């Protein structure tokens, strides 16, 4: 038997990686958000003044799973590129920026630290940009499919900045329980 794998064997090898990386990234990202109480229904988040550019909550619920799938596919491509120069660097950058990604939701939604979250997302942007540069040299497609992620991070950084700018002292903001007071006047 020859030592060189056929195209179908290579394709199956990539699919095996993707069958692990895509669900893992999607699950970990979803857990990070769920465990930190992220989302439009978070009472602290609802009480914040937000940018007019802020999309409705369902947009975040649609975009992030798509981005996590793209991240998982890019990771599978990098893992599949055994023997590639700078593969180790690309994987280290991937892990670093993914850890930052998973840290953002708890920092913002659970700790109510929009200012610190802005620093985290700035590091994510830098990490994603560096990852694209390195991944591109290993597999062009692995870098190319990270562009939507970088674009969304830049947009999210703008939204995060707007929250910081419009809500000085946001970490101290504690919304009370919502009540509806209805007063009926007797006639």
Give structural notes.
By secondary structure, the chain is mainly alpha-helical. It is elongated. It has one domain: TspO/MBR protein (Ferritin, Up-down Bundle). The model has no long low-confidence stretch (mean pLDDT 90). 71% of the residues lie in helices and 0% in strands.
Give the tags.
187 residues, mainly alpha, Ferritin
Q: What order do the helices and strands come in, and which of them pair?
A:
Elements: H1 7-35, H2 43-47, H3 57-80, H4 87-110, H5 114-138, H6 140-144, H7 147-166
Helix pairs in contact: 1-3, 1-4, 4-5, 5-7
> What shape does the CA trace take?
elongated
What is the overall number of helices?
A: 7
Low-confidence segments, given as residue ranges, are: none
As a percent range, the share of helical residues equals over 70%
Major sheet summary line: none
Number of domains: 1
For the termini, the CA-CA separation is 96 Å
CATH topology: Ferritin
Looking at CATH, the homologous superfamily is TspO/MBR protein
Could you say which structural class the secondary elements and strand pairing correspond to? mainly alpha
* Beta-strand content: under 5%
CATH class term: Mainly Alpha
Rg computed from alpha carbons, rounded to a whole number of angstroms: 21 Å
CATH architecture: Up-down Bundle
Number of strands: 0
The succession of helices and strands, N to C, reads: HHHHHHH
Q: Write down the overall mean pLDDT.
A: 90
Give a brief description.
Helix content is 71%, strand content 0%.
């Amino acid at each position: 038997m020859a030592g060189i794998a056929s195209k179908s064997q290579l394709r199956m090898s990539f699919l095996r990686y993707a069958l692990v990386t895509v669900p893992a990234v999607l699950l970990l990202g979803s857990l990070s958000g769920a465990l930190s109480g992220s989302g439009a229904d978070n009472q602290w988040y609802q009480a914040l003044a937000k940018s007019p550019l802020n999309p409705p909550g369902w947009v975040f619920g649609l975009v992030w799973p798509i981005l996590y799938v793209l991240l998982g596919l890019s990771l599978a491509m990098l893992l599949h590129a055994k023997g590639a120069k700078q593969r180790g660097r690309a994987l280290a950058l991937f892990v670093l920026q993914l850890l930052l990604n998973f840290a953002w939701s708890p920092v913002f939604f659970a700790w109510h630290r929009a200012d610190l979250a802005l620093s985290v997302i700035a590091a994510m942007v830098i990490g994603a940009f560096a990852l694209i540069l390195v991944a591109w040299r290993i597999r062009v497609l692995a870098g190319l499919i990270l562009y939507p992620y970088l674009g969304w991070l830049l947009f999210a950084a703008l939204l995060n900045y707007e929250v910081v700018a419009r809500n000085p002292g946001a970490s101290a903001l504690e919304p009370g329980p919502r009540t509806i007071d209805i007063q009926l006047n007797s006639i």
